[in-house]
Structure prediction request, 312 residues.
Amino acid sequence: MSLVSAFVPIWILTAVGYAACRWGLLGEAGASVLGRFVFHLAMPAALFLALSRMPLSGFAGRSLLAFGVSTAAVVGFGWVGASRLFGREPSERPIWGMVAGYVNSANLGIPIATQVLGSVSFLAEVVLLQVLVVAPVILIALDRHSDPAGRVRIRRIASLPVRNPVILASLLGVACSAADLQLPSAVDASLTLLSGAAAPTALVALGASLHHTVPSPAEVKPAEPVGVTELAVITALKLVAQPVIAYAAGLALHLSAPQLLAVVVCAGLPTAQNTFIFGQEYGVGEAVANRAVVVTTTLSLATLAAAAALLG
Prediction:
């Protein structure tokens, strides 16, 4: 199966989720319930198995470095450009940088990696990089701006791995790999079945969420106008600049063709939904985060297929 044809099931299942939500087959809370199932159960199982079965020596250091370079470049540009280009306040800059360069390695990353790359191994490394390095930096900045005295709640940042099932499962997977632990066959079989539900359920949930993904006016503060130009710049940074930079960095690091494909595809994933959650929690950048998630998620199904076709 060609790389482009690998996207056909992705488009079909996303369309099925959209249609099911539009026709009322999933109920009003269907998309949310499916999303929670993927986030709290299926996705942690898939990432845990991938990391626990991968020797620590198998971590793709150069590939992860190429991805990290693209993330740092785009997040940094977005962070600085938010104020210089669009006059955003200092408290909004971390969210602006996050919407530009923090990829959806979960809900969309799992099915894309499974279908196009044939494995979630590198995606699991991307998850670790984002949640253990990028997310804490952004949270520290948001904490500092939200506190009148500019203090940072270190305890809250340090407890993030325990409070997030994706991070916790990934860390446990790495620990099992390091200790060379073998799961009981019944547990391994159960987790394998559960992880198999991650990709299709995530795509159906994605399609369902696209039907009514814009929050109500009560959920998003009205004093955050987002212009078309601003949204276009964010979309270009996320879907074009980040994968292009990842590709250039991969070439400079002499990555093989499969490694280069994995790096570019992961870098080309859309803005993570966590950006809206972060913005909502700290009361900044909610509107720009929500619109970025919607637009980049919708367009990424085409841009990722184009990238796969070019690299294929």
Summary: The chain has one domain: 5-202+224-311. Confidence is low (pLDDT under 50) at residues 213-223. The two ends are 11 Å apart (CA to CA). Residues 161 and 278 are 15 Å apart (CA to CA).
